[in-house]
Amino acid sequence: MKVVVTFPIPPPAKNLLSQHAELVCWDSEDPIPKGILADWLETADGLLTTLTCSIDEGLLANASRLRVISTVSVGVDHIDVQAAVARGIAVGHTPGVLTGSTADLALALMLGVSRRVAEGDALIRSGAWSEGWKPNFLLGTDLSASTVGLIGMGPIGQAVAARLQGFGSRVIAWNRSQKVVKGVEFVDLDDLLQTSDIVSLHTALTPETAGMITRERLSKMKDGAILINTARGALVDEAALIKELRAHRLRAGLDVFVDEPLPNDSEFRQLTGCVLLPHVGSATARTRQAMFELALKNLIAGLQGAELPAGQVGRFT
Ligand code: GLV
Prior knowledge:
The chain is of the alpha/beta class. It folds into two domains: 2-97 and 285-303, Rossmann fold; 99-276, 3-Layer(aba) Sandwich (Rossmann fold), CATH 3.40.50.720. 33% of the residues lie in helices and 15% in strands. The protein has eleven helices and twelve strands. It has helices spanning 11-18, 34-41, 57-61, 81-86, 99-114, 117-125, 155-167, 189-195, 215-220, 238-246, 285-303; strands at 2-5, 22-25, 46-49, 68-71, 90-92, 147-151, 170-174, 185-186, 198-201, 226-229, 251-254, 274-276. It has a seven-stranded parallel sheet with strand order 8-7-6-9-10-11-12, with helices on both faces. Strands 2-1-3-4-5 form a five-stranded parallel sheet, sandwiched between helices. The protein is globular and about 65 Å long. The structure holds glyoxylic acid. Glyoxylic acid binds next to loops.
């Protein structure tokens, strides 16, 4: 059996996997070129990959032996799941194990923007903190006094809500399907945008959600409100968000972008009122270890033709 791995895999995972299959590994930090991946997939039974590697129908069309794709991520927007399922290829991902870490990071961004943490840090480093404590210096907003609107109430949205309840924030939410979550008031999307001091995105990127935070929806947000995105950049009209940030009408905490890494000439880099992070929602040692373990279990089960332990993405699509 042959497994293609599209990224430098940690040695313990490599050792474990090599007990089950012959491995063909891309050992560079640069993305694997598509042509090489296509060649390797022609004779592969399994694929272990991450969200930086796009798996489209063209690649799958020549991967006639492929039985399982296992991605070390909860998001599967980089994989044409429908095309895979149509070819009988199981798709596995790593839900659950990164819920807490991602929710923590959403809170870190909420606090970072509302209490101006990055601005304060930059100010000290630049030598501009010259007058000590002043009554009106770097004033922010209180999370405890904020209404926070969560868009998407899957496990990560719910974990964010639970954390916010500890801060005493009012939590409102919108979800595609009806849900009941203790302490959370469900409202329609327009109400959420118009009444929230902070709007935080926790929905998967799908054809239905792509671009859902349009220019018009951003314009409905309150003056001075904060947009938090730890989900996917492509949920948001970035050009419209940049315009709102440039005008100092909105603030933002962003861990994800349409283009990653963020291009050098991205205007986000010039703007104040936003905190930028390099897609690190699940980046704790414990969580990454758990993601690898689950992804390997998915892969091995798929090679054996068994049910994937984390559930099979898109099985009913
Ligand atoms: C991270 O963005 C993931 O999908 O795991």
